[in-house]
Design goal:
Layout: E1 2-6, E2 9-12, E3 15-18, E4 22-26, E5 30-36, E6 47-55, E7 61-68, E8 73-75, E9 78-80, E10 91-94, E11 97-98, E12 103-106, E13 110-117, E14 122-129
Antiparallel strand pairs: 1-4, 2-3, 5-6, 6-14, 7-13, 8-9, 10-11, 10-14, 12-13
Length: 130
C-alpha cells in the first residue's frame, strides 16, 4: 500500500498560509493474475491463459484493457514474438457468467478490451496462443 501526504496553500493580500498536512493510504481494490493452464508445452502446442481480475472495491471498473506481449523479447536488436493469438479463442466471464462484448485484436501484442469488473466481483478472461 502507498502512503501519501497532502497540504494546501492559501494566498491572499500578499500573505500566504498553509494548512495542516493530511496523510492517507492508497488501498488497491483491483488485482490481476495471469496463469497458464498447463506447466509444460512443446513447440506448436496451444497454450491456454487465464487472467483473473478481482475488484474488492465498491465501484465497478468498466472497459478495462488487457495487453499481452505474447512472450516478446529482443535478440540481436530484433524483437521476436514467439506466440500468436488463436483467433476466436477469447472467453470472458463476470462473476461466473459468460459475457459478450470483449474484443481481442492480435498484433505484435494481443489487446483485449471491453472487460468490466463488477463492484465486489471478479472477471475471468481465457484465451489461447500457439
Amino acid at each position: 500500500m502507498a502512503i501519501f501526504t497532502n497540504q494546501a496553500t492559501l494566498s491572499y493580500n500578499n500573505t500566504t498560509t498553509t494548512s495542516n498536512i493530511v496523510t492517507g493510504e492508497i488501498i488497491e481494490v483491483l488485482s490481476a493474475a495471469k496463469n497458464a493452464v498447463d506447466d509444460e508445452y512443446r513447440f506448436g502446442d496451444t497454450v491456454t491463459y487465464v487472467v483473473s481480475i478481482v475488484n474488492t472495491g465498491t465501484a465497478a471498473f468498466n472497459n478495462l484493457t488487457i495487453t499481452d506481449d505474447l512472450g516478446a523479447y529482443t535478440a540481436s536488436g530484433v524483437t521476436r514474438t514467439p506466440l500468436t493469438y488463436v483467433e476466436d479463442s477469447l472467453a470472458y466471464y463476470a462473476n461466473g457468467v459468460l459475457q459478450t462484448g470483449a474484443t481481442a485484436v492480435a498484433g505484435p501484442s494481443l489487446v483485449i478490451s471491453g472487460i468490466n469488473v463488477p463492484a465486489g466481483g471478479n472477471a475471468v478472461v481465457i484465451y489461447n496462443a500457439r
